[in-house]
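wait is this the right file?? whatever heres the structure
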């Protein structure tokens, strides 16, 4: 079983990954943005370093997912593979921070690699407004994120909404404006109940196909 948690920067992916992994006994897989050697340079000069940053992110995600798939373990991953190609790269292109040539190359790399990996059994999308994202980002105080622009976060939100409305796999949307699963256990319980319902539906579909 593979669960991917998607959402904008500061949406709460890491916390939900930790809580759900503890509940289900799955392996938590956390994003490590600070390990991307281009990230600091990207926040200083997005136009110069966007392609390098995105290619390294895609490489790291593909390597990790390939290893996990080969192991055959159950895991919950902080951020899906789709975020890079359908959210972040097109957003950089629309902001004129990535050239059309670089976007085309990046998309082709993803499309080739994605044929080798299974689709997540469930994607959980954490939907947040920009003020909530800013509050979360300030609270965790990561130095690398100090230079994030408001228009960058806003544009990412629009991309996430477009992607969520067209995604063809199993997706559970959590409205972070009315949900605080860190402070309120009942909110976490409601998310778990919804996941269990999706799991039951998923297993029923697999049995029918078998």
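ok assuming it is, sequence goes like this
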């Amino acid at each position: 079983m593979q669960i991917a948690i998607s959402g904008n920067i500061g949406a709460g992916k890491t916390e939900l990954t930790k809580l759900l992994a503890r509940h289900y006994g799955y392996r938590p897989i956390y994003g490590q943005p600070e390990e991307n050697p281009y990230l600091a340079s990207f926040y200083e000069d997005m136009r110069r370093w966007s392609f390098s940053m995105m290619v390294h992110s895609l490489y790291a995600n593909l390597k990790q997912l390939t290893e996990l798939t080969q192991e055959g373990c159950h895991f919950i991953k902080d951020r899906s593979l789709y975020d890079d190609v359908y959210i972040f790269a097109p957003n950089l292109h629309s902001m004129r921070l990535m050239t059309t040539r670089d976007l085309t190359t990046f998309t082709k790399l993803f499309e080739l690699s994605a044929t080798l990996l299974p689709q997540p059994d469930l994607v959980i999308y954490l939907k947040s407004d920009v003020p909530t994202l800013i509050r979360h980002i300030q609270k965790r105080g990561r130095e690398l994120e100090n230079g994030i622009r408001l228009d960058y976060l806003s544009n990412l939100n629009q991309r996430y909404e477009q992607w969520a409305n067209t995604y063809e796999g199993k997706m559970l949307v959590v409205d972070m404006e009315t949900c605080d699963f860190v402070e309120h256990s009942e909110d976490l319980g409601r998310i778990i109940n919804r996941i269990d319902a999706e799991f039951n539906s998923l297993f029923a579909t697999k049995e029918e196909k078998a």
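The helical segments are 13-24, 39-44, 46-71, 82-94, 100-114, 130-140, 150-166, 185-209. so i think its the right one actually
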